[in-house]
Amino acid sequence: MNELYEQLDFVENPLFEKVIADISDRHYSVVDNFFSAEEVVSLRNSLLQKYEADRFKKSAIGNRTNEMIEKEIRGDFILWMNENETNEAETTFFNKINNLVNYLNRTCFMGILHKEFHYALYPEGTFYQRHLDTFENDDRRVLSVVCYLNDQDWDNNNGGELVLYLDENGSEVEKRLYPLPGRVVIFESQRIEHEVMRVNSSERLSVTGWLKTR
Ligand SMILES: O=C(O)CCC(=O)C(=O)O
Ligand SMILES: [Fe+2]
Questions:
Q1: Among all ligands shown, which has an atom nearest to the Cα of 119?
Q2: Is residue 2 part of a domain?
Q3: Which stretches make up the Fe2OG dioxygenase domain (predicted)?
Q4: pLDDT given at position 18
């Protein structure tokens, strides 16, 4: 009986339907204004507060320990989020992400059981070389989700674009996406190689995460 009610309850969400259609057509989706301007400001302030409290760590790559090599590959600083210990901005953030996850699971059986998200800050001059998000041998990562928290007046000359390397009929095509506030980019972790271009000026702020099976 409960199941029947659940199905009757179901309300189609055009935004989430678009994400599903995009991903099944071309393996990625870009959603502008997924987060409102106010939500971006709150989450950015939360990020900056924790960054200033020295809670971020230099990102690492797999098992590699040579810091010189790492700097050549990625230059961001990160802090993992804990869903069991959230402030107001993070609660709102996880509510929205969970709505999306529930919708995906209900409508297209992606079987997402876990997720992991971290804040990221790219100082001026840093980048993240071309990679696949499964390089840590984590084949449980199904979808990568990147949420940008930059200022409203973010200038495209600041650099820091996300470049997705797509396959179009056997040839490689670059899709260049600016890290605009409120924008969320979702792509198949196992399939799409991507890169963060050098940040020319300012700091580039985001939350990045993975939706995982098992
Ligand atoms: O910030 C982005 O646009 C992408 C970040 C990324 O590729 C990663 O953290 O694996
Ligand atoms: Fe990545």
A1: 1
A2: no
A3: 108-213
A4: 97
